[in-house]
Inverse folding.
């Protein structure tokens, strides 16, 4: 029994009733202007009013902003389960305008029918309760006298039926709105592209934080452990200096990422045309030219680094320079983490219009068993592969002749 009455007590039902009433009010206002009701039969009024209403609604639907206004109103009053099922964009094509015209005519017709019944049915219920000669909607008189004691009992039934009529009319109105005001195929495609772009930006920001903070924490832990083991005052001072410098760089990377999030509100919003998603200011993000500082940090952590960087100045596109730095940083961080103290060799070269990155380190006895089988769920190597694929290249990592080798190849033409 409560399930029968629950829709009648729902706020959504009355909000949709208000939406229906707006269509009825529009039709009533137009009727007062033309043709009026004086001197016409009901059929004559309908015959003249319907074409006038329909023509006016179709004309108004040609305005692009009308689709937006109707979408906003439908979202507020019809209360769809998912707001995105009803578009709030202006009409951009003639198909959008046609659907808006059908919607306006349909909602006005349905609203008018429900509005008229919303007046006649309560009046009939009042007659059944209090008038000796009650009338039903439409002017049908009920017989008076004996056997009419059931009339008052029929009043709640009429009101109950009206309530469910409003419930079903509201649901029908919502279904019409989803069908006729829903996003067009072009809008659905644009929304899907926006979701994909936002996901890409979130992944990029996550990789940035993983690479930067992960490297800083690795260097900090190694330096702190070495300082505790050695106990030499000069070495401890040097370790603290490296820890401070590494922490400062990590804080700068974190602040840059937070600034990017604050400036855009959320990924995918308010970005200048032509910029790379999540790239921020290219001048603020480290590139290949900052690799010597990264190698110095690794050397101070106790791992010898031998590097060859053969990249002519100005030849490497900015996006490749920045992504290349992050890839090498992740390779060096992994070497420090899994093979501390072992020599690291890095080679960055341009060959046949292709950027090649190679980072290798000797596998120590403690590191071999760990590095040959990478950890499940590790984000470092997966992030490197994602960077390479997004740039149109490829990445590989594994043990080769007693070394752990990370190799990445990216074409210049796709990195530009």
């Amino acid at each position: 029994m409560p399930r029968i009455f629950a829709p009648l007590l729902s706020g959504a039902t009355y909000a949709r009733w208000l939406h229906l009433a707006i269509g009825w009010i529009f039709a009533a206002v137009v009727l007062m202007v033309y043709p009026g009701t004086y001197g016409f039969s009901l059929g004559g009024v309908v015959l003249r009013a319907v074409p006038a209403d329909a023509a006016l609604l179709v004309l108004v639907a040609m305005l692009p902003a009308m689709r937006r206004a109707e979408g906003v109103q439908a979202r507020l009053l019809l209360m769809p389960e998912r707001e995105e099922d009803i578009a709030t964009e202006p009409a951009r094509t003639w198909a959008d305008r046609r659907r808006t015209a059908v919607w306006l005519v349909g909602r006005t017709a349905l609203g008018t029918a429900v509005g008229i019944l919303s007046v006649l049915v309560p009046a009939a219920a009042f007659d059944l309760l209090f008038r000796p000669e009650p009338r039903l909607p439409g002017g049908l008189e009920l017989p008076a006298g004996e056997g009419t004691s059931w009339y008052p009992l029929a009043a709640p039934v009429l009101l109950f039926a009206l309530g469910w009529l409003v419930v079903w009319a509201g649901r029908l109105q919502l279904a019409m709105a989803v069908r006729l005001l829903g996003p067009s195929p072009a809008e659905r495609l644009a929304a899907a592209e926006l979701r994909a772009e936002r996901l890409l930006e979130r992944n990029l920001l996550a990789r940035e934080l993983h690479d930067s903070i992960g490297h800083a924490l690795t260097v900090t832990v190694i330096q702190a452990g070495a300082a505790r083991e050695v106990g030499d005052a000069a070495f401890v001072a040097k370790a603290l200096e490296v820890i401070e410098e590494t922490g400062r760089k990590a804080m700068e990377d974190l602040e840059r990422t937070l600034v990017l999030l604050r400036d855009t509100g959320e990924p995918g919003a308010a970005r200048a045309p032509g910029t790379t998603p999540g790239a921020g200011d290219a001048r603020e993000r480290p590139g290949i030219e900052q690799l010597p500082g990264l190698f110095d940090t690794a050397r101070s952590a106790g791992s010898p680094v031998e590097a060859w960087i053969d990249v002519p100045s100005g030849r490497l596109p900015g996006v490749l320079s920045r992504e290349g730095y992050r890839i090498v940083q992740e390779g060096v961080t992994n070497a420090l983490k899994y093979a501390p103290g072992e020599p690291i060799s890095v080679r960055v070269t341009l060959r046949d219009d292709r950027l090649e990155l190679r980072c290798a380190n000797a596998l120590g006895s403690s590191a071999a068993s760990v590095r040959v089988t990478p950890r499940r769920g590790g984000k470092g190597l997966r992030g490197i592969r994602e960077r390479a694929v997004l740039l149109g290249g490829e990445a590989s990592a594994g043990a080769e002749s007693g070394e752990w080798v990370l190799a990445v190849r990216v074409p210049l033409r796709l990195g530009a």
User: Anything to note?
Assistant: The mean pLDDT is 80. The radius of gyration is 36 Å. The first strand starts at residue 135 and ends at 136. The longest helix spans residues 185-230.
